Amino acid sequence: MQCSAEFRLDGTTHKTDPNAFKDHGYIVMESMPDDNAQWGLNNYVTIFIKRNTTILHQEDVTIDLFFDKYAKTNPDADPAPNWFYYWKKGDVIEDIDQFSYHEEPGKCGTTIGNTVYLCTCGADNNSYNYTLLNWYYHAYISTGADGVCNTKRFDTTDVQEIPQGHGRANVVCIRPGANGVLDSRNLGDDKICGNEIHTGNNGICQTERTGDDTWANGFYTKGMGLPNQICISAGTDGFLTSGDKPDGTRRVSVRDVWVPVLSINLSQNTRGIYTCATTMAHELKHKDLAQNHTPDADRDGLRDGLEGVAPYYFCPKRSDTYWINKADTKWSGYFSYGDNEMVARKHGIDNPKTVYDNMDWSEDGEQW
Ligand SMILES: [Ca+2]
Ligand SMILES: [Ca+2]
Ligand SMILES: [Ca+2]
Ligand SMILES: [Ca+2]
Fold first, then answer.
1. How many C-beta atoms lie closer than 10 Å to residue 309's C-beta?
2. 311 alpha carbon – ligand 4 mean position (Å)
């Protein structure tokens, strides 16, 4: 490419501090190339060194040219930033011709007709590392430290292992102590079995410990049950859905503990063109899923056949099985399609679009 450029000594636009930029300098170009291939190494450029409007020096030089990634200075008045404009023009990432640019982050990934949209963050650094819990698959509700089940099953596919208000029935709560004689007198439905007190059918130890009798099995006061027992389990469908309402409102008592058993890691660490390649694969996966999404009982955009199966075991009755909405607060909409989002993210991370990094002439890009 042959073009001319202005190197400003007085510029407030780009202050050139050789220590800050090492061997990099900024030039303001009179016109921008309309082709990605015109960026790069050994460009022949006429440089004018000016102070205000006075030309102090003019020289033809050969320099390596990179574009300002986020400026919107392309010659076609395309509203996209330079990264999108030049990467698309140069086919720098596989399938980028299927994308357009949208300024609003909320429109990222939107498909209109056959076109998918990328937005401002599509070429940023993207780094996160989440351990996400599956709150439904084989999850259970535990009585917690007080040993009393305070939650009532809501979904009839779940199993109430311990009735609400009860503890684990007929377990030892008091032993006779060193003298070998049971001093405590059983109260309520507690039973004396040999020289021990058992909780009885209601599973609550109602007896006051007396003399040198000792608490057994983690009991430490009357009125409690055997700690940390399963009080509601998932049942044969494999999913515990008594812990919350479909809108995410917690239903499990705050005195009980909701225990998930399956977790997955979701992590990404990409920059620039590689973020874009990952994001593109992700958004195209959303598009694929949308084209074949019925039947979809929980309306998360993931058809029933893709839920409830390995490796993610998404809950067919909940739209955000892993509560990605709470892990990633950048976009509140994940609550309504978190399962769909998980599939798209994993796909993007594992199968990014092919990148031709030898054609990435963005400032701070792969050739910088
Ligand atoms: Ca169930
Ligand atoms: Ca009892
Ligand atoms: Ca679904
Ligand atoms: Ca689901």
1. 10
2. 14
pTM to 2 decimals? 0.87
Rg (CA), the chain: 32
Which ligand lies nearest to the CA atom of residue 224 in the structure? 2
In this predicted model, what pLDDT tens digit does every residue of 13-31 receive, in sequence order? 444 444 444 456 677 787 8
pLDDT digits (tens, 9 = 90+) for 184-222: 999 999 999 999 999 999 999 999 999 999 999 999 999
Q: At CA 150, angle to CA 147 and CA 151, rounded to 5?
A: 125
CA distance 205 to 188: 8
The CA 189 to ligand 2 mean position distance, Å, reads 4
Whether 68 and 31 have beta carbons less than 8 Å apart is answered as no
Strand arrangement, sheet containing 172-175: 191-193, 196-198, 172-175, 214-215
Q: Are 159 and 295 in contact (CB under 8 A)?
A: no
Q: What's the CA gap between 362 and 274, in Å, rounded?
A: 13
Instruction: Give every strand in the sheet of 159-160, ordered side by side.
Output: 159-160, 230-233, 140-142, 257-259
| Ligand 3: centre distance to CA 319 (Å) | 7
Q: Distance, CA 193 to ligand 2 centroid (Å)?
A: 13
> Which two three-digit tokens encode residue 135?
């709150």
Chain segment 138-174, per-residue pLDDT in tens: 999 999 999 999 999 999 999 999 999 999 999 999 9
The residue-averaged pLDDT of 315-323 equals 97
Higher confidence at residue 368 or residue 280? Answer: 280
Distance 205 CA to ligand 3 centre (A): 44
Q: Which ligand is nearest to the CA of 338?
A: 4
243: DSSP letter:
S
